[in-house]
Each structure stands twice: as structure tokens, then as C-alpha cells.
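queue> pop job 88
queue> type: inverse folding (structure -> sequence)
queue> payload:
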């Protein structure tokens, strides 16, 4: 609520508001006022006289939601679009496919800006993004207005040998990657008014030696950061860890001290029942990639993970960054597992995965992921005045089952309108696309040549 006569900087009027707050309030005809980078109030539009505002956005016919939080992305890997989806697991380990060491700083920035632009226009206000050259890509993505939780990929395997089936570990590689994250933390952490946050991101159990994983855990304790990792994502990973460590990947991550409530684990597909219980007991956060996994012929046991105590979040990996589509896939995947439609898996559950659960994984439930007074003003306005979202008998149900990322009209991050009427406010979209196209073509040409 607000005192009478309070002014605000930005006023959103006449929308159907889905708050994702603790009470899961839904306001069919409401208004939101922001002051600075915070939400000042949320109320029914007829509650009292509207305050004066520097900017007024008419959101009649729209659904307003918290900004989506995409918990596992590799924006630079937009270079794989339309190709990797049909190559099976880990095409970057395959001959003739661009690999991380081949990518220059300039190419990484061009491709990362494309990924950031796509994410924003589809309604993500925060992404957890890991790959190469983050010292350059994080500020470049942040400049578009996006909130970034990022890191370089930490590993000590020599990726050059992996297309030939060799997993060769080199201590010097690991030390160099750790030096990169320390420099990243010193130079980027807290940048762009706090929108740039550094995490620790060991790539995967099989691309990190056991000794290196322990070093990562020790470094993370010193810095007090969140950890992101690919975990139990393939049979190859499971087989290699069984041969190397005589454990499952989950058991290994537990052994080195990373299996805890600060861990954000992507995929979590190849799990034993004991793994699921162990992960749930540790209250880990799972970055579920429903469409990407299904496209590879795999399904993560999300129903059992949630029942065991894991926090399920939603992500798109390096595929189409449409989180609305992702919610629909997550709901369908869960129902395939349970072979029924019941109260356990409904639109509100996947909506939480895309919003407040993502904030929980990042330790920011008091800041983002829900529309509440005092929270950061990360707000998405979805145009629902379309044939495929009419009639709107249930706004959330219509959004999850029928919505598309392209329905996003306006995006506000930190109180600033960064997408207006479907167009980025801080960037030249045509230039971003042209630069990314050129970078991708150059990378693929070099990879195929040799």
C-alpha cells in the first residue's frame, strides 16, 4: 500500500498483475508504481486516485509479471543456433564444430550481445551465464540493461583432446581458469549498479579433476559466492566419474564440498534414486532445461527431485531463450513423468520456477523474482490483446499454455525501461544481429577448415 498523494517515477496502469509474491496475489486490474530502482506500491487500479508519475505506461490488455530468471545460459553459444539441436550431446566436443578456445574476445562480445538482446526481448531480466571471455562479455551484456550472474567456465581438462576421446587434465589450465575468475570478481562484481554478479562455475565433474574441484570449493568459500555446474548431464559423464572416482557425479560433488544450498546444478538427468535423495537433502537448486533435454531424447526427474527437496528453476541453456515456451515444456515434461494431470503440476508451479525459484537459487528472494513493494523494479509487460491469448479466463493458464516470448511488449530492469514496444531501448538491434552473424560465420569457417 502507499500513502495518499505519493508520487512515483514510473506508473504502470490497468494491467492484470501476477505478483509471484508469498501470497501469490493476482490483481485483475491493477497498477504498479516505482521509485528509483524499486517497486513503491502495487494496488488495484480503482483503489484510489492514481499518483503523479514521470512516466505512465498504459498496460490495459496486458499481463504484468516479474522479470523471468533464466538460471542456465551460454549466450555466446547462440553461434550454434539451428545446428547443435540435431547433433546429440555436446557437439562442441566434435570435430568441425567451434570450440571455446577458438573464440576471440571480439567474437564472444558480438555473440553475447545477441544472446542478451534475445533474452531481454523474451522477458528475462536476469540470466546465469557462463562461458568464455566474461571480463568482456558481462559488461557488454549488462550495457543492454540485463542482470547477469556470470563466470568463465572453470576446468582443467584440455578440451582439444576431447573430440578424440581424451580427457587429459593439466594443472596449469586449472590455475589459469581460476586466475580468470579472480580477475573477473575484482573487476566486474557489483558493476552496472549491482547488476553484474560473479559466481563460480566449474564446468562439469568430468572436465574438472577431483583435485581441481576441491580447489574451486576452497576458493568459493573464501569469496562466498554461489556455484553453478553441469551435473549428471550425460552417460559419458557418469561413466567417466565411475571409472575415475568410483562414485556418481552427485557423490563426487558432495565429497569435494560443493553439494549444498548454494549449488545451482544444470540438467540433473542421469541420477540414481540415492543421488536424488542426496541432492534433495542438500537443498540444491536445479536449473531445469526441459526443451533442450527433450530435444536430446532425455528427461530430468523433476517430479522426484522436487519431492526430495530440491528447488526447481527454469532455464533454456543455449537454445531459444523463450522462458514462456520453457514453462510450457517444463509442465509437459512433469506430466509425462507422473502420467497424469493433477494439482501437483499446474501453471503456477512452472511460473514459480521461472521467477521466484530462480531468485531463491541466486540468494535474491528479497530483491527479484516477485512483484512486491521494496523489491527491485524488474517487471515484464506481456501484450495479451492477441487472438491466441483470448479469451483470458485464467491469465496465468493462458500465459503458460498459449503465450509466446514474442508477446513481451515492455521490459523494465532496475526501474529503467530497457525494452519499449518490443524494441531494445539501449541498443541498435540491427547492428547487434549483423555483428553476431559475421562472428558465427567466421567461427564455423575456421572450425571446418581445421
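queue> result:
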Amino acid at each position: 500500500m502507499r500513502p495518499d498523494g505519493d508520487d512515483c517515477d514510473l506508473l504502470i496502469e490497468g494491467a492484470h498483475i501476477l505478483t509471484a509474491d508469498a501470497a501469490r496475489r493476482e490483481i485483475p486490474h491493477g497498477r504498479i508504481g516505482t521509485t528509483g530502482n524499486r517497486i513503491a506500491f502495487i494496488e488495484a487500479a480503482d483503489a484510489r486516485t492514481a499518483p503523479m508519475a514521470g512516466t505512465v505506461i498504459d498496460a490495459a490488455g496486458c499481463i504484468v509479471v516479474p522479470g523471468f530468471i533464466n538460471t542456465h545460459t551460454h549466450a555466446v553459444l547462440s553461434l550454434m543456433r539451428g545446428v547443435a539441436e540435431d547433433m546429440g550431446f555436446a557437439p562442441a566436443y566434435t570435430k568441425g564444430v567451434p570450440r571455446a578456445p577458438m573464440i576471440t574476445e571480439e567474437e564472444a562480445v558480438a555473440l553475447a550481445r545477441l544472446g542478451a538482446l534475445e533474452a531481454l526481448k523474451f522477458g528475462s531480466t536476469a540470466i546465469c551465464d557462463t562461458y568464455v571471455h566474461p571480463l568482456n562479455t558481462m559488461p557488454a551484456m549488462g550495457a543492454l540493461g540485463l542482470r547477469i550472474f556470470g563466470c568463465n567456465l572453470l576446468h582443467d581438462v584440455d578440451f582439444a583432446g576431447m573430440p578424440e576421446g581424451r580427457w587429459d587434465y593439466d594443472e596449469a589450465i586449472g590455475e589459469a581458469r581460476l586466475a580468470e575468475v579472480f580477475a573477473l570478481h575484482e573487476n566486474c562484481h557489483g558493476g552496472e549498479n549491482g547488476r553484474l554478479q560473479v559466481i563460480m562455475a566449474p564446468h562439469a565433474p568430468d572436465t574438472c579433476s577431483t583435485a581441481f574441484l576441491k580447489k574451486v570449493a576452497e576458493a568459493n568459500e573464501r569469496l562466498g559466492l554461489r556455484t553453478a555446474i553441469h551435473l549428471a548431464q550425460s552417460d559419458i559423464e557418469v561413466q567417466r566419474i565411475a571409472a575415475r572416482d568410483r562414485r556418481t557425479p552427485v557423490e563426487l560433488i558432495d565429497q569435494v564440498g560443493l553439494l549444498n544450498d548454494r549449488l545451482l546444478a544444470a540438467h540433473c538427468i542421469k541420477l540414481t534414486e540415492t543421488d536424488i535423495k542426496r541432492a534433495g537433502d542438500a537443498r540444491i537448486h536445479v536449473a531445469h532445461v526441459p526443451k533442450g533435454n527433450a530435444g536430446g531424447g532425455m528427461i530430468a526427474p523433476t517430479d522426484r527431485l522436487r519431492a526430495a527437496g530440491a528447488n526447481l528453476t527454469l532455464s533454456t541453456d543455449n537454445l531459444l531463450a523463450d522462458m514462456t515456451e520453457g514453462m510450457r515444456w517444463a509442465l509437459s515434461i512433469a506430466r509425462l513423468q507422473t502420467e497424469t494431470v493433477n494439482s501437483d503440476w499446474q501453471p503456477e508451479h512452472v511460473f514459480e520456477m521461472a521467477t521466484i525459484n530462480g531468485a531463491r537459487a541466486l540468494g535474491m528472494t528479497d530483491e527479484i523474482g516477485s512483484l512486491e513493494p521494496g523489491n527491485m523494479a524488474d517487471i515484464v509487460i506481456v501484450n495479451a490483446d492477441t487472438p491466441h491469448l483470448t479469451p483470458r479466463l485464467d491469465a496465468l493458464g493462458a500465459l503458460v499454455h498459449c503465450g509466446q516470448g514474442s508477446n513481451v511488449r515492455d521490459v523494465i530492469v532496475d526501474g529503467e525501461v530497457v525494452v519499449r514496444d518490443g524494441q531494445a531501448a539501449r541498443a541498435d538491434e540491427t547492428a547487434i544481429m549483423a555483428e553476431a552473424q559475421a562472428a558465427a560465420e567466421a567461427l564455423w569457417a575456421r572450425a571446418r577448415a581445421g
